[in-house]
Specification:
This protein is mainly alpha-helical. It has 9 helices and 3 strands; from the N terminus they run αααβαββααααα. It has a 3-stranded antiparallel β-sheet. The protein is elongated and about 80 Å long.
């Protein structure tokens, strides 16, 4: 069963690579179809249409090829905490990406799944957004763990989780300014929409987990304040994602 799944995955990867090559050829033909030479332009357009028909490539496929995705491991399989969702959402917004929460098979042998944040965008934006989430999410969890050890040791487990979430809410609120300084460039929304329509046609609204509620007691308000203080110390390096990603950072 596992070997069959891996064989299928390899086949799909090979097929995707071949499709990418064909799409590149079609794009080159379409670029030539804008030539001032009428005969050259007409021939290039016919060739593009011929390739599209032969390989079942649609206008949606061409538009979707302008976008890409980056998956980052989430902290939950189904229902991420509100603060984690807020962090991922702010990062996606900052870099002009579409954000999707989903699951992927982590281990085919055991059938174990993992939750993922999917950042969909154009250029280097998805890679940088994914990097930003991974770095900041890791720092938030470290701060959360330290807050539990230093201030919540006597709490009941359920209340400890709630108060740790409050700390993280404050942390995410404070780190917003840091994320904004890494803002991306132009957003190609049409390409992103086409990519989502092609690769996620059955997309549904996701739900996050609210463990806090509307009211905070005085000690819980202090958890939020400590979170804000921790978030102000967060760091995000600009040297990420290779040369292309570094160029994209302001």
């Amino acid at each position: 069963m596992v070997s069959a799944l891996r064989a299928w995955q390899a086949k799909m990867t090979s097929k995707a690579a071949m499709t990418d090559k064909i799409i590149d050829k079609i794009k080159k033909c379409l670029a030539l179809s804008a030539s001032s030479n009428e005969h050259e332009a007409a021939a290039a357009l016919r060739q593009a249409q011929k390739l599209m028909a032969a390989h079942g490539i649609s206008d949606l496929d061409l538009q979707a090829a302008e976008a890409a995705e980056k998956r980052s491991r989430a902290g939950a399989i189904k229902y991420p905490a509100n603060w984690e969702t807020a962090l991922a959402d702010k990062i996606a917004e900052t870099f002009g990406c579409r954000l999707i929460f989903g699951r992927s098979l982590l281990d085919a042998a055991t059938g174990v799944y993992a939750g993922n944040w999917v950042f969909i965008g154009t250029g280097a934006a998805p890679e940088i957004a994914g990097y930003a989430f991974e770095v900041l999410f890791r720092q938030a969890r470290v701060g959360r763990s330290e807050h539990i050890k230093s201030r919540l040791t006597r709490c009941h487990p359920a209340n400890k989780t709630r108060r740790a979430d409050i700390y993280c809410e404050g942390w995410v609120r404070a780190v917003t300014a840091l994320i904004t300084r890494f803002a991306g460039g132009e957003t190609h929304q049409a390409a992103i929409d086409a990519y989502v329509a092609k690769h996620y046609p059955a997309l549904r609204s996701a739900q996050s987990r609210d463990r806090i509620g509307d009211r905070l007691r005085p000690n819980e308000a202090m958890d939020y304040v400590h979170g804000q203080r921790g978030g102000r110390d967060a760091q995000l390096s600009r040297g990420v994602g290779g040369a292309e990603a570094r160029k994209a950072l302001p």
